[in-house]
Amino acid sequence: MTTTDAIAPVRPEDARRIAADGWVWGFALVENYRTMYPQAIDADDHRYVGGFGTFRHYPQPFTPANTDVVTPNNDTPYSWAWLDLRTEPWVLSVPATDRYHVLPLHDLDTPYVGFIGSRTTGDSAGDYLVTGPGRTGPVPDGLAGVLRADTQLVGILGRAYLAGPQDVDALKAVQQQYLLRPLSEFTDAERPEPAVEPQWPVWREEARESVEFFTYLDFLLQFVPVREDVRRLRADLARLGIDGTGSFEPGALSPELREALAQGMDDGRARLREAEAAHPSSAGLFGTRAELGDDFLLRAVGVDKGLYGLPTAEAWYGGWLTDTAGNRPPNAAARDYTVHFTADQLPKARFFWSATLYRLPERLLVDNPIDRYSIGDRTPGLVYDADGGLTLYVQHTRPADPDQAANWLPAPAGPFTVITRIYGPASAVLDGTWQLPDLTAAPDRG
Questions:
Q1: DSSP secondary structure string, 109-177?
Q2: Which segments constitute the DUF1254 domain (predicted)?
Q3: Per-residue DSSP letter, 40
Q4: Residue 446: per-residue pLDDT
Q5: Which of these, 180, 96, 94, 189, lies nearest to 137 by C-alpha position?
Q6: Dihedrals φ, ψ of 113, to 5°?
Q7: Which residue of 7, 359, 411, 422 has the lowest C-beta tally within 10 Å?
Q8: Residue 8's pLDDT band (boundaries 50, 70, 90)?
Q9: CA 103 to CA 117: how far, in whole Å?
Q10: Do 19 and 264 contact (CB within 8 A), yes or no?
């Protein structure tokens, strides 16, 4: 069936509605492919991890010179991998370590399949089976767990604690013990016939803003079995020729239908912007499929705000976009800032917490004379108040007072934001009883 045949009965107003719903639901899939393509498919890209079934580790801390990732996390450097589960399951093996770590596995549409790490599985070594949708068969003895994915392609964005540049070699030693093996290799069995290699569409950044978006979505649907919660939407998309065959061609549409799809995308973006304005925190944006449910708009908010963000049970995210003078965003060219935690107000973390500063609008780290990009409970040399409280000094120039300089978080001479991360947040953080203190603005220097 050609694209033209598929969409012939669809009225433009129906196509616009379907496109809006399809864009909201498919946004996560296409954004995920936007990351997966350079990492797992395009061997000429500097971000290439080595293909499917291979880890690439990044043990070095981020600096202002790293511009590939916005709002980079300097607490827990990354370990990236991607799995193609069509041929057979894979086994992920991890070493014993008392270092905070988490290896989250996410489906192609971004809900988490499961978590291996300090919070969920502990510090012991273990072998974990990762299997695709509909897969049956015996499970080898001795496995520490089984993670069952709902899509044929799965991503892994591992994180492990880094104490600083002096800790890089020790972190490497842990990362290099992460191991991925096909099940047949793990059990020393004959490897099955490999699945047919797809014709991966080359990622084009401009496709995000055009109806070509649906060309990528059509291709990706072949890896996503139809689930009951999207059965009606998948049927509607198939009426437009977006059916997982990879044959959708926007050029085959009539001008009226192309315009209807473009308008539907605009409608979807408007819904996303409205939802983001109504949901300023990360609560409920990230989690397993059972936790996220069928609120695909909220899932899109999470993808847009922080693709691969961790659920709040693992890590809580918060920060300051406005100061006490009402400036949005804060601006260190005009004034200095303080953040004062009383002894009872210090972030309550099972593992650790940090506050990282980013310049705006780029959301990148800020070059500074002491090479400090974040500050937290593991920062050496912090000066606490006599009563156990802590004051941070967020400003462009180094404070003259030595105690204040010890607690200095350098800011650019311009707009910025600060993101606080709490790893293993306590129940008071999760239920909202605990709150961040204000970002207090000093008088304008002008």
A1: TS-EEEEEETTTT-SS-EEEEEE-TT--S---TT-SEEEE-SSSEEEEEEEE---SGGGHHHHHHHHTT
A2: 53-182
A3: I
A4: 62
A5: 189
A6: -80, -40
A7: 359
A8: low
A9: 6
A10: yes
pLDDT digits (tens, 9 = 90+) for 127-139: 999 999 988 888 8
Q: What is the largest CA-CA distance in the chain?
A: 76
- Cβ of 163: how many Cβ atoms within 10 Å? 16
Residues 248-304 have pLDDT tens digits of 999 999 999 999 999 999 999 999 999 998 887 778 899 999 999 999 999 999 999
Dist. CA 208–CA 277, nearest whole Å: 21
Q: How many CA atoms lie within 13 A of 286 on its CB side?
A: 23
- Indicate which CATH number applies to the domain containing 81: 2.60.40.1610
pLDDT, one tens digit per residue, over 342-398 is: 999 999 999 999 999 999 999 899 999 999 999 999 999 999 999 999 999 999 999
Helix (H, G, I), strand (E, B) or coil at 251: helix
Q: Is residue 159 part of a domain?
A: yes
Looking at the fold, whether 122 and 168 belong to one and the same domain comes out as yes
Q: For residue 183, what is the enclosing H or E element? A: helix 183-186
| CATH code of residue 405 | 2.60.120.1600
Neighbouring C-alpha atoms within 13 Å toward the C-beta of 381: 8
Cβ-proximal residues to 277 (8 Å cutoff; 6+ apart), any chain = none
Residues 75 and 161 in one domain: yes
Sign of the CA dihedral running 271, 289, 319, 208: negative
Range of 128's domain?
Answer: 43-186
Question: How high is the pLDDT of residue 281?
Answer: 74
Chain CA centroid to CA 370, Å:
29
Structural domain count of the chain = 3
Residue bearing tokens 């941070």: 392
User: What pLDDT score was predicted for residue 312?
Assistant: 92
Whether pLDDT at 161 is above 60? yes
Closest-CA residue to 395 (of 377, 406, 408): 408
Lookup: tokens for 29: 């899939």
CA angle 175–84–38, rounded 5-degree value? 70
Scan for tokens 């009426």, then name that residue.
Answer: 239
pTM here is: 0.90
